[in-house]
Structure formats: C-alpha cells, structure tokens
Design brief:
The chain has 2 domains: 296 residues, no CATH class; 87 residues, no CATH class. The protein is globular and about 65 Å long. It is α+β, with helices and mostly antiparallel strands. Helices cover 30% and strands 21% of the residues. The chain is built from 12 helices and 15 strands.
Length: 454
C-alpha cells in the first residue's frame, strides 16, 4: 500500500501496473466465475410478487407531529507530530415539525434559509470520543477512556433528565407494571483481553450514579453496549464509530418517547418518529435490538407507536431502484405500491444466501423491511418495528402495525432536493452533518490548538 510522506521526501505511491497479475491469475478468474450476485428485476418470479400491496390512501391520518433524528461524525488528528493520535467528533440532531408545516415545505423543490424558521424545535447533542493513541482525564487506557466518555455523555443533564435515565427505563423495562430486575452483561469490561466472564447487573444494586460495584471494578450502565470489546489499545477504536452513531440516534428517539410517555401518553397516538437508517443494531451493540423490540411491542399493544427507519444506501436501496425504475421495460413495483420483504425474498434477490439456514437480521434487527414506490415516483427502503423476530419468515400486512399510516406520511414528506429524500431527514442532516470542508479542517485546528495548550 502507498504511504504519504511526512517530510520533504516524496510519497510512496502504489504501482499502476500490478493489477495485471490479478487479472491473469487462473485462481482469481475461477473465483469470480463461481460468485453469486444479486438478481435483476427481470429474474424475479411471479410467485415472489405476492407480498406487493397497494397503499390505502383513504385512511384517516392520525399523525400531527413528526420527530426526525440523524447524526454524523468526523475524525481528526490531535497532534501534527503524531498523526496516529485521533479523536472523533459526533453531532446528533433531533428536529420536531408539525405535519401542517411539513406539508408546506414538501411542496418546495429547494429548502431555503428562511424555511428553517419552520423548525419548532431543534436539539443538538455533541460528543467527542478518543479513537487512537489518546486517553482522557484520569483514565489509564483507551478502553477505559471510551467507556468513561460514553458514560459522561449519557449522564449530561438534558431538560431535567438525561439519556442514562432513559437507558435505565429501557434496560429494566420500567415502562411495564412489573419491571425487570436483572440484566446479564456478557463480558466484564474490567477484564483484560482474552479473559472471559460476564456480569449480572441487578437494578436493586445500582447506585444513584448508574454504576455497579463488582469484584473486578466499577461497571457503568452504559457498558451494556459492549463497546469495550471492540477497542484495541494498539489499533484503536475506529471500528466502533458506526456503532456509536446508530446507537445514539436510536437512544435519542427512545428518550423522546419516554418523555412523552411519562408526561402525556396519549400524544404517542399523534407522533411519527423517523430514524435515519434501519431500525437495527450491529456489531457489539447488536443485543440492544432485544430491548428495543420489547419496548416497541409493549407500546404497540398498550398505546400506539408510529416509528420508521429510512435507508439511503446499501443493497436494499440498490434492489429498490432495480424493481421500481424503468429498466429494459421491467417495473415490478409500481407507483402507489409497496413490497413487504420476506426472508426468502431477501436471500433470493437482494443479498445472496440460503434462506433455509439463514435468518436475516435475527441478531440485530427489531424490524422488518419494506420497499415503497410512492405515487410521485419516490423510492424508499423503510423498516417498521415487528413484535416477533420470526415475522420476516412469513410476513403479512397486519403484522406490520400502522403501516399504511406511516407510508402516507412518508409520501407527504417528499423532498426533491435529493434523491428519494424526505424533508425532516434532509433538514436535520443539513443542520448537524460535518463536512470535510470546512468542518473537519476547523475541528482539526481546534483539536491541535487545544492539545498544544496543555
């Protein structure tokens, strides 16, 4: 691989001719020929179109308010003389609209600065996280620095509450009449790499600062995310950045759900919550999907819940474009229709695999996927909470609660500023995203100046 020079000497660039050795290699040629790839629209069989549904646009729309959440991060070098020392800056935003205002904005092809005045409320949540060759405060390792930083972020006061109170409410199911007492943490964050052992976290033994005393050392409630498992003292914590982003985006949504549930529960019947990305968790945070599924199931049964995740890239978006847009005369999903994806369909057409032995998203998703082709030719890949992990094996419309109501509102919120975008996500992204120019450059200068003043 090429190496960029840090001195007056020239950079070591990669060769521009070595690809020929790969192309001519018989083993490589044979391997490519045996690979299976996603199928095109013309290859979809009629029997697999049974789950295509027409959107019922005549139903009463109960949604009056919409809350959308998005976030992003950028990494910067802390010291010029040590480019391996890195910090990640995160920014998350939650934006609240009334449907009335959104309908007015959705008619506009472009969003102008004055349209920002339509925002009823915008909250930003900021986080700086040590990533590599950096430790924070009085901590002795990168792993403990990451743990403490996440803990401190969750402990910050936010309108007479904090994310930690929300996490406790979620983990121990305090929304139920009979809450849970024990949460089993699979790995003890105080053990060294290679050592095995879990921790039993008892709610009755949790201290007022949301910590637990154990024989190996204190455990934070936020350690249930198990991010410490992916932190390497030498290679760094770069692998957790995506996990942290998806985690906090969904925690923000649950935080608002808890506040509404606590103070005016009936309002949940009029709120649509939109997450940027699928309703799932991955990597070390994957176990969180069980807690989220339980909460969604409870709210769907006891009150009502309108929650949706919106995907903007990936294999499902590629497939959605393939079956919705004209290509060789093949349009499988017409405007005003949606397709509920089954386990068989996913492994047959979207991501190659054996549906008999594989269960898509069983360890990470608390939702099922929908491809929606709106009547104005927008194409969306959405995920809707499901009460049971096995629904995807034999999905039926009635198992996806409030599906038509959610799709009607997604269709209303079109934004022609970007491909297949909706106004809330487009606005919140514009308000919190961190661009390479100038955001990353300015943050890097800020980090360098702060580090040099120590």
């Amino acid at each position: 691989m090429g190496i960029t020079s840090r001195s007056h000497k020239p950079s070591e660039w990669a060769s521009k001719a070595n690809h020929t050795h790969l192309i001519k290699d018989p083993f490589i040629q044979s391997f490519i020929k045996t690979c299976k790839f996603p199928k095109e629209a013309s290859e979809i069989e009629e029997a697999d179109k049974e789950l295509i549904q027409d959107l019922d646009e005549d139903i009463v729309n109960p949604i009056k308010h919409i809350l959308a959440v998005d976030g992003g991060y950028t990494t910067v070098e802390v010291k010029k003389s040590f480019p391996s020392s890195q910090i990640a800056f995160f920014q998350f935003g939650a934006v609240l609209f009334s449907v009335e205002d959104l309908e007015e904005l959705s008619e506009k092809p472009f969003i102008f600065p004055e349209d920002m005045n339509k925002l009823h409320d915008l909250q930003r949540f900021k986080l700086a996280l040590p990533i590599k060759n950096v430790i924070s405060g009085n901590e002795l390792s990168l792993k403990d620095s990451v743990r403490k930083t996440i803990y401190d972020f969750f402990m910050r006061d936010r309108d007479s509450s904090n994310f930690m109170a929300t996490l406790k409410w979620l983990v121990f199911e305090e929304y139920k009449a009979h809450s849970s007492e024990i949460y089993d943490l699979g790995t003890d964050p105080n053990l060294e790499p290679g050592e095995k052992g879990g921790v039993e976290l008892k709610r009755s033994q949790m201290k007022s600062d949301y910590t637990f005393d154990t024989s190996n050392g204190p455990v934070f409630l936020t350690d249930i995310f198990r991010l410490h498992e992916a932190v390497d003292e030498e290679q760094g914590a770069g692998g957790i950045l995506g996990y942290v982003t998806r985690l906090i985006e969904q925690i923000v949504i649950v935080h608002f759900i808890r506040v509404i549930y606590k103070h005016q529960r009936s309002l949940l019947n009029n709120f649509l919550f939109i997450a940027d990305g699928p309703l799932s968790f991955s990597g070390q945070t994957a176990n969180m999907h069980k807690l989220f599924r339980e909460l969604c199931k409870f709210l769907q049964e006891s009150n009502n819940l309108f929650l949706v995740g919106l995907e903007k890239s990936g294999p499902f978006v590629d497939h959605a474009q393939e079956i919705c847009l004209p290509r060789q005369g093949q349009v499988i999903l017409k405007g005003g229709q949606y397709l509920i994806l089954s386990n068989d369909y996913i492994y047959k057409y979207v991501t190659p695999g054996d549906s008999e032995k594989m269960h898509y998203g069983i360890t990470s998703y608390y939702s099922g996927k929908i491809i929606f082709h709106s009547s104005d030719n927008q194409v969306f890949v959405l995920s809707i909470p499901t009460a049971d992990k096995d629904i995807i094996k034999a999905p039926q419309k009635f198992l996806y609660r409030n599906l038509d109501e959610i799709l009607i509102n997604i269709q209303k919120l079109k934004c022609d500023m970007y491909d297949d975008a909706i106004v809330p996500i487009a606005l919140v992204n514009k308000l919190v995203s961190l661009a390479n120019h100038p955001s990353k450059i300015l943050l890097e200068k800020f980090a360098l100046k702060s580090a040099s003043s120590l």
